[in-house]
From TrEMBL:
<dbReference type="GO" id="GO:0051607">
    <property type="term" value="P:defense response to virus"/>
</dbReference>
<dbReference type="Pfam" id="PF22335">
    <property type="entry name" value="Cas10-Cmr2_palm2"/>
</dbReference>
<dbReference type="InterPro" id="IPR054767">
    <property type="entry name" value="Cas10-Cmr2_palm2"/>
</dbReference>
<dbReference type="InterPro" id="IPR013407">
    <property type="entry name" value="CRISPR-assoc_prot_Cmr2"/>
</dbReference>
<feature type="domain" description="CRISPR-associated protein Cmr2 N-terminal">
    <location>
        <begin position="244"/>
        <end position="369"/>
    </location>
</feature>
<keyword id="KW-0547">Nucleotide-binding</keyword>
<dbReference type="InterPro" id="IPR038242">
    <property type="entry name" value="Cmr2_N"/>
</dbReference>
<protein>
    <submittedName>
        <fullName>CRISPR-associated protein, Cmr2 family</fullName>
    </submittedName>
</protein>
<keyword id="KW-0051">Antiviral defense</keyword>
<dbReference type="GO" id="GO:0000166">
    <property type="term" value="F:nucleotide binding"/>
</dbReference>
<feature type="domain" description="Cas10/Cmr2 second palm">
    <location>
        <begin position="695"/>
        <end position="891"/>
    </location>
</feature>
<dbReference type="InterPro" id="IPR024615">
    <property type="entry name" value="CRISPR-assoc_Cmr2_N"/>
</dbReference>
<dbReference type="InterPro" id="IPR043128">
    <property type="entry name" value="Rev_trsase/Diguanyl_cyclase"/>
</dbReference>
<dbReference type="Pfam" id="PF12469">
    <property type="entry name" value="Cmr2_N"/>
</dbReference>
C-alpha cells in the first residue's frame, strides 16, 4: 500500500466513522449508529479486506475487537479514533458522565455513560441552535420527526453514498477504486441529498443534521470534515503530530483601490480571490480540501472546477450546480468569493514546506498571467510577441511582479500540549503551550494567559467529580482556541516584518498607480512626458483595444494585469463552461446606463415604442452603435415581452454616449439627445418633461466587527460568543440548570462564553459564502435594477439606480443577518425569505450570520460623469462615517452635486431608512409640492431648534404645518404622522448636531423625491 493511499484511506475511514443520519437514528436503532450505514459503507469500500496490523490484544482487547470488526489496520484506527476525540472536544463542551456498573465476561465492571438528563432523542424534539446567536429553531412544531422510519432513512443514506461511489466506478469500470477521488466525492456531494432520493421528507435539513443531539449548533458534516482533517494530519506526520497553519496573502486594499473603471474594481477583488484559491489549492492537493477549516470550500465554484477538471470527478455530478448553468458574468464563477487568508490543519512536520510551496505557487502563477498579459498586449498592438524579439515588456513584467503577492504565515503544533495518558489523550500538560503564548500576551513567568486563563479551562482542566457525575478531563482538542490564538498572534507578528526588495524604476510612472514605470517596448520612450508620447505600446492599445486602455493611459505591470483580467477570466470561464466560443458574455453596466435604468424600465413597461426620429437615428448610426449592457433585472423582466424593445433599450444609452463623443457635431449631438429624451418621455403623463436622469448610486457594505466574530471575543462591551448553556438542546438545558442550582462550579461553567472552535469558523465561512455567492446577487440584480461589482465574504460593492438605493441597502442589511421582521412567520413574495438567522431562496436553506450580526453601509449618489476615483473616495469616507459616527450598524449617504457641494446623512438602520423612504414618497406624490422641504429648511437656522429643552410639540407642529400646507387633501393625512416620526428621530440625535441632521435628512429626502435628477435644479434640456 502506498503512503498516499494510506492518507486517503485514513481520511475516508474518518469520514465514515459516524453516519450522516446519526441524529435521526440515535437512541432508536437497536444496532447503534456506528453499526448501521457507517459499517455498511466501510465494507462497500473494501476496508474489511485490508487486514490488520499486529496489535497487543492483551493490553487493548476492546481496541482489537473494534479493529477486526471494522476491518482497518490498527494504526489507522488509532488515528481515526484520536481524530474523533479531538474533533469532538474542539467543537463541543465537556459533558457530564454518569458512573454505572456493567456485566462483562470478566464480571462486573464500573464504567461511565452519558448522564441520563443529557441524553436527547432528537427526533422527538428536533431543535437546531444557531451557533453564532444561540437562537433556537424548533422543527417539531408541525409534528417533529418522530414518525420518520429510521430504517428507511438508513437505506436512503446508504444508497446516496453508494450512488456517489458507483459514479466513480462507472467512470473507470476496469480500475480499482481511486481512494483520492472517493474522498473528494464524498466530501463535496454527500451533504447534498438529491430530491429524487429524499422524496421531500428531509430536504434541506439533510445539510444541517446535528453532529451531537445535545449541542445541535453544528452539523454532522462539520464534525466529519474536522475528524478527516485531524486524521489526515496524524497519518501524514511521522510523529503523528498536527499543527494549525494560518496564512495570508496581500496587500489587499492598495491592490484593489487602484482603479479608474468599474471593471478595475471588480478585477482587483476577483484576481485577489483567485490568488487566494491558488494558495489554498496547494493544501487541497496535498491533504484534501477538508484540511482547510477557514474558509469553507465546499460549493465554492472555483473549487468545483478544480474537482471536475483537475481531480477528474464525474462531470455529471456538477450538472445541477448554479455555476454550470449561467453563460454571462452573473455566473457565480465571477464572484470574488474567497478571503485572502486561510486556516488549515496540517502535519506538523510539513507546515513550513507547505507554506513555502504556497508562496512559490502564487508567485509563479501570477508571473504566468503576467507573461500572458504581455503577449496579449503585443498581439493587440500588432507587434512581435516573441520574448527574444520584444524583450523589454517581458523583463518589466517579471521585475515588477517579483515578490508579489506578499505571503505571511505561522504554524503552531499541537505537540506543545502533552497528554500524560497517551491512550486516552487526557491529563494534559500545557507548560510548553503556556510558555509559547506568554510573550504574545505580555504575561509574567508562570502566569496563565489567553484561553488558559479562562474560568472554563481552570474549572475543567482536571477531572471534576460531583457525586456520581463526572466531567472528564479534556483532550488536546479542547485547546484548539489556545492554539488558534497563538497562531493568529504569531501571524500578526510575522506581518510586521515586511521584507523590502528594492526595484529600480526609471522614467515616467504608471498613470494609474504612480508607483512603477509603464510597460514599453523601448525604454527611451519612458522619458517622454504625457502629451508627447506617440507610437507607444499603449497608444496602439488605446486605438485598437479601448477597453484595455483609454487615450493617454500608460500602465505598469499590476494595473495591466488587472485591466486584462476580465478578458482573460472570461475566456477561462468559457472553456470551463465548455462553450463552443470558449468565451462568456461579459458585461459591465456603465454609470450612464445605470442612471437611466429606472427610466428604461418604465419605458419598457409601457411597450418600449421608439419615435420615428429615433428609428432613423438607429439606422443612420448602426455601424457606430454597440448595444450597451443592461441591468439583469431589466432584462429578466422584459425579455419575454419584446425582444426588439430590449435591443432598442440597449442602444439608447449608446446613442447618448455617441452624442458626447468627439467625432460628432454639436447640432447632430443635440438632435440625438432630443430624440432619446422624447422617446423615454413618451410614457410619462407630462410628455413635455423630457429630462433624463443623470445620477446613479454606489453602495459599499461591510460586516461589523468581523475580527471579533471570528475570534469569538468580547469587544466594546459586547459578547460575540454564546454561553455554553445557550448552545445546549433545551432538554439538556433543563437538566443542566437543575444540577447548576446545586453546584456553583457547574453554574459558572454554563455561564462561560463558548470557546473558539472550528465549527464557529465553518459556520461563519459558510454563512458568508452563501451570502456573497447567492443572496447578494439575488437582492441587487433580481430584486432591484442594480449591478453587483463584487461580493466577497462580508463585503458588498454594487451600483444601483437612485430610486433603488434605499430599499436595496435595507434589504442587504437584513439578508446579512438573515432576518426581515416584515415577513416574520411567512414566505417573502420576492422569493428570498429571511427569518431567524436563515435565508430560503428557491427551496435552498442557508444559514446567515444571525440576528445579532450587524453591518454598516456607505452610499454615494453622483453624476454619471463624475470622476470614478473621486466618487470612490467619497464612498469609502461614507462607509467609515457609518462605522465611526454612526457607531456601526448604520448607514451613511453622500450626495455629490454636479455643481459642487455635498449632502451627508448618517443614521441607524430600521426606522430612519423607512422614514427616509416614506418622506421621499410623500414629497414625490401627486398633489404634493417639494416646496414643503424648501420652506422647512428656511426656518431651520443654525442656532437652535424650535423645540426648547427637548420639547417635541413645537417642532412637530411646525414640521406638520409645512408638510400639510404643500399637500392636497388626499396626501395631507400623512403629514402629521411623518412630522411626529421625524421629530422623534431628530431628538434622538446629539443636541449640538440636531439642526444639521434634520436639514440633511430633509434635503436628502427631497433630492431622492425628484422624478429625475439632472444637474441639480430644473434640469438639462437638449
Amino acid at each position: 500500500m502506498q503512503d498516499k493511499d494510506t492518507l486517503w484511506q485514513t481520511k475516508l475511514a474518518a469520514r465514515l466513522h459516524d453516519p450522516a443520519e446519526k441524529a435521526l437514528v440515535l437512541l432508536r436503532d437497536p444496532a447503534g449508529h456506528e453499526n448501521g450505514t457507517s459499517r455498511a459503507l466501510a465494507r462497500l469500500l473494501g476496508f474489511h479486506d485490508i487486514g490488520t496490523d499486529a496489535i497487543d490484544t492483551d493490553n487493548d482487547e476492546a481496541l482489537a475487537r473494534t479493529v477486526f470488526k471494522k476491518g482497518i489496520p490498527a494504526s489507522m484506527y488509532r488515528n481515526v479514533q484520536c481524530a474523533d476525540w479531538w474533533a469532538a472536544a474542539a467543537d463541543r463542551p465537556q459533558w457530564p458522565m454518569q458512573e454505572i456498573t456493567v456485566t462483562t465476561k470478566k464480571g462486573k465492571e464500573k464504567t461511565f455513560s452519558v448522564a441520563s438528563w443529557a441524553q436527547v432523542r432528537w427526533t422527538n424534539r428536533p431543535v437546531l441552535v444557531h451557533p453564532l446567536t444561540g437562537e433556537q429553531h424548533d422543527l417539531g412544531k408541525k409534528g417533529g420527526l418522530s414518525e420518520t422510519d429510521f430504517e428507511d432513512i438508513k437505506e436512503r443514506s446508504f444508497n446516496h453514498h453508494a450512488d456517489l461511489l458507483l459514479a466513480l466506478q462507472r467512470q473507470n469500470p476496469d480500475q480499482e477504486l481511486d481512494w483520492h477521488k472517493a474522498l473528494l466525492t464524498l466530501w463535496r456531494f454527500a451533504p447534498e441529498l438529491g430530491e429524487t432520493n429524499d422524496n421531500g421528507k428531509l430536504g434541506e435539513l439533510w445539510k444541517l443534521l446535528p453532529a451531537d443531539t445535545r449541542i445541535p449548533d453544528h452539523s454532522i458534516w462539520d464534525h466529519l470534515d474536522l475528524t478527516s482533517a485531524f486524521a489526515g494530519a496524524f497519518a501524514a506526520d511521522p510523529q503523528g503530530d498536527a499543527a494549525l497553519l494560518s496564512l495570508s496573502i496581500g496587500p489587499v486594499q492598495p491592490f484593489i483601490a487602484a482603479a479608474r473603471k468599474m471593471e478595475d474594481l471588480w478585477a482587483g477583488s476577483h484576481l485577489l480571490a483567485r490568488l487566494s484559491w491558488e494558495a489554498m489549492r496547494v493544501v487541497c492537493e496535498k491533504l484534501g480540501p477538508d484540511a482547510i477549516l477557514f474558509p469553507r470550500l465546499r460549493g465554492v465554484p472555483q473549487v468545483d472546477l478544480w474537482l471536475r477538471d483537475e481531480c477528474k470527478l464525474p462531470s455529471d455530478l456538477f450538472t445541477g450546480c448554479d455555476w454550470n448553468r449561467g453563460s454571462t458574468d452573473s455566473n457565480p464563477l465571477f464572484a470574488a468569493a474567497l478571503p485572502n487568508r486561510f486556516v488549515a490543519v496540517v502535519p506538523a512536520s510539513q507546515a513550513r514546506e507547505l507554506a513555502l510551496a504556497v508562496e512559490r505557487t502564487v508567485r509563479d502563477w501570477l508571473q504566468g498571467i503576467g507573461k500572458t498579459v504581455v503577449q496579449e498586449l503585443l498581439q493587440a498592438a500588432g507587434l512581435a510577441t516573441d520574448a527574444e524579439q520584444t524583450p523589454v515588456p517581458y523583463a518589466q513584467m517579471r521585475e515588477q511582479l517579483q515578490g508579489f503577492p506578499e505571503v505571511h504565515w505561522a504554524a503552531v503544533p499541537f505537540s506543545l500540549i502533552h497528554a500524560r495518558n497517551a491512550a486516552k489523550q487526557t491529563d494534559l500538560d500545557v507548560t510548553e503551550l503556556s510558555d509559547a503564548m506568554r510573550p504574545f500576551f505580555g504575561a509574567g513567568e508562570g502566569k496563565p494567559c489567553g484561553f488558559l486563563a479562562t474560568p472554563a479551562w481552570q474549572l475543567l482542566q482536571k477531572e471534576l467529580r460531583l457525586g456520581n457525575t463526572t466531567f472528564f478531563a479534556p483532550n488536546p482538542g479542547v485547546l484548539y482556541p489556545a492554539v488558534h490564538d497563538l497562531a493568529e498572534r504569531a501571524l500578526a507578528a510575522a506581518k510586521t516584518l515586511r521584507p523590502f526588495q528594492q526595484s529600480k524604476q526609471t522614467g515616467w510612472r504608471c498613470s494609474l498607480s504612480g508607483e512603477t514605470e509603464w510597460l514599453t517596448t523601448d525604454r527611451e520612450q519612458l522619458e517622454q512626458p504625457a502629451g508627447q508620447r506617440k507610437d507607444t505600446l499603449w497608444t496602439s492599445i488605446a486605438a485598437r483595444k479601448p477597453a484595455w486602455a483609454k487615450k493617454g493611459e500608460h500602465l505598469g505591470a499590476l494595473p495591466a494585469v488587472k485591466r486584462l483580467w476580465p478578458t482573460l477570466f472570461a475566456r477561462e470561464a468559457g472553456k470551463a463552461l465548455r462553450k463552443k466560443t470558449e468565451n462568456v458574455d461579459r458585461f459591465i453596466v456603465s454609470t450612464h446606463t445605470m442612471a437611466l435604468a429606472h427610466q428604461l424600465d418604465q419605458w419598457l413597461e409601457h411597450g418600449g415604442l421608439c419615435t420615428p426620429e429615433l428609428s432613423k437615428l438607429q439606422e443612420h448610426y448602426r455601424k457606430e452603435l454597440d448595444a450597451v449592457a443592461l441591468p439583469r433585472r431589466l432584462m429578466l423582466r422584459h425579455q419575454s415581452v419584446n425582444a426588439n424593445a430590449l435591443k432598442d433599450a440597449a442602444q439608447l444609452p449608446a446613442l447618448l454616449d455617441l452624442a458626447d463623443g468627439e467625432n460628432i457635431s454639436e447640432s447632430e449631438a443635440s438632435f440625438i439627445r432630443r430624440a432619446v429624451c422624447q422617446t423615454l418621455a413618451s410614457v410619462r403623463e407630462n410628455q413635455g418633461d423630457d429630462r433624463l436622469e443623470t445620477y446613479y448610486s454606489l453602495l459599499l457594505m461591510d460586516g461589523d466587527r468581523m475580527g471579533a466574530w471570528l475570534a469569538g471575543e468580547a469587544s466594546e462591551g459586547r459578547d460575540y460568543a454564546i454561553s455554553y448553556r445557550n448552545s445546549f438542546h433545551p432538554q439538556v438545558q433543563k437538566g443542566f440548570d437543575e444540577h447548576a442550582a446545586k453546584h456553583a462550579n457547574i453554574r459558572q461553567y454554563g455561564q462561560q462564553k463558548r470557546a473558539l472552535s472550528p465549527n464557529r469558523h465553518l459556520a461563519i465561512s459558510g454563512a458568508l459564502n452563501d451570502f456573497s455567492l447567492t443572496v447578494v446577487r439575488h437582492v441587487v440584480e433580481n430584486e432591484h435594477l442594480g449591478r453587483l461589482i463584487y461580493a466577497g465574504g462580508d463585503d458588498v460593492f454594487a451600483m444601483l439606480p437612485v430610486v433603488d438605493l434605499l430599499p436595496a441597502m435595507q434589504r442587504l442589511r437584513q439578508a446579512y443577518s438573515g432576518h426581515d421582521p416584515e415577513h416574520e412567520g411567512g414566505r417573502d413574495p420576492r422569493g428570498l425569505t429571511l427569518q431567524g438567522g436563515f435565508a430560503i431562496l428557491k427551496g435552498r436553506l442557508m444559514r446567515m450570520m444571525g440576528t445579532t450580526a450587524t453591518a454598516s453601509c456607505g452610499a454615494v449618489i453622483a453624476h454619471h460623469q463624475a470622476p470614478l476615483s473621486a466618487v470612490r473616495r467619497e464612498l469609502a469616507a461614507a462607509e467609515q462615517r457609518a462605522k465611526n459616527e454612526g457607531g456601526r450598524d448604520a448607514f451613511s449617504i453622500t450626495i455629490v452635486k454636479r455643481s459642487g457641494g455635498a449632502l451627508r446623512l448618517t443614521a441607524k438602520w430600521g426606522e430612519p431608512v423607512k422614514l427616509l423612504q416614506d418622506l421621499r414618497d410623500f414629497l414625490a406624490a401627486e398633489g404634493v409640492s417639494r416646496r414643503a422641504a424648501y420652506h422647512t429648511l428656511q426656518w431651520l437656522n443654525d442656532r437652535e431648534l424650535p423645540a426648547p429643552k427637548g420639547d417635541a410639540a413645537m417642532l412637530q407642529s411646525l414640521l406638520a404645518y409645512q408638510l400639510n400646507r404643500q399637500a392636497n387633501s388626499h396626501a395631507s393625512a400623512q403629514a402629521t404622522p411623518l412630522a411626529q416620526r421625524l421629530t422623534t428621530l431628530t431628538l434622538q440625535q446629539p443636541e449640538n448636531k440636531r439642526i444639521d441632521w434634520l436639514r440633511n435628512f430633509i434635503s436628502v429626502a427631497e433630492f431622492l423625491a425628484r422624478e429625475v435628477r439632472t444637474h441639480e435644479t430644473g434640469g438639462q434640456r437638449p
